[in-house]
Amino acid sequence: MTFEVVNPPALGPPRGWNNGMLAPEGGRVLFVAGQIGVTGAGEGGGRE
Question: What's the pTM?
């Protein structure tokens, strides 16, 4: 099975991990690596 790495530019560059992995076989399943507590600029993320 081939996975596609998912790293949205809005989250900034990953530091030793990938933000998600997409598995396309038999459908589309996205594995998410966790929650992001900061913006791409490194600032604390708040409610919008």
Answer: 0.51
